[in-house]
Amino acid sequence: MTAIYGHRGAAGTHPENTLLSFEEALNNGVDGIELDVQITKDGELIVMHDPTVDRTTSGSGYVNEMTLAEIKQLSAGSEFSHMIDYDPNTWPSIKVPTLKETLNLIRPHRIELNIEFKPNLALHKGIEQIVLKEVESYGQGLKVSYSSFHLPILMRLKALNKEVETAFLVNQNVPFPRDYLETFNLATFHVSKKPLLGDSFFEAEELLEKIRVWTVNCDEDINKLLQKNVKAIMTDFPKRAIALRRTFKKQV
């Protein structure tokens, strides 16, 4: 049965890539969580999608030009006051989490975790080894996979540890997909919903069970992908997706 991943936690209802968002996804009963990492000026790994803090925090600037202490001064919740569940008493005090803090939160739940390397991280030499070391230290018990749009990062991860699971992020059809899987020793593809819900995809329907799909928030799209029996659906609204899957199970 298709797994449900919380995209950046429960990013549709809670501040993305924060401990609060991850806690919400875990409480919803997700099978996995997807998150993004960036690295600070002083070499600390934080959980954040963008290379800058501008969009999701009260601050401004590039993550790699700021220390962890500087980033910890920022609010990671105040920019989400448009959300229905916004709490003016607590959300402004939410901080950007480190990867260590996030791994310690998720680890007892023994779910799957996907860590995405943004392409900008290719500029930071040795980032792959830094992340692998952190996960080895704090992520015991977790099944961890690594994804990126930047294929060289995935290749360097494999060179460091041939056992790690890697996933190639794509937002369009890929010709001869099995060649990618075999040549680059990929476990799977992470595919945007648009090409997957089109008339044809990957020239190989049998690959659907290897594919995780992002970011799927529409009920109709979720139901279509459940019918296709894809490996996983990544969604900003995991609670709703899990309810739809529960209904789907009763119907089959």
Entry summary:
The chain has helices at 19-28, 68-71, 99-106, 127-138, 151-160, 177-183, 193-196, 219-228, 238-251, and strands at 3-7, 32-39, 45-47, 112-117, 143-148, 165-170, 188-192, 211-214, 232-235. The protein is an alpha/beta fold.
Provide the helix percentage: 25-40%
Uncertain spans, ≥5 residues at pLDDT below 50?
none
CATH topology heading: TIM Barrel
Q: What's the gyration radius in Å?
A: 18 Å
Distance between the termini: 11 Å
Mean pLDDT across the residues is 95
Measured by DSSP, the beta-strand proportion falls in 15-25%
Shape: globular
Q: What top-tier CATH class fits best?
A: Alpha Beta
**Main sheet, how many strands, which sense, barrel?**
8 strands, parallel, barrel
CATH homologous superfamily identity: Phosphatidylinositol (PI) phosphodiesterase
- Structural class comes to alpha/beta
Order of helices and strands: EHEEHHEHEHEHEHEHEH
Question: Helical segment tally?
Answer: 9
Provide the domain count: 1
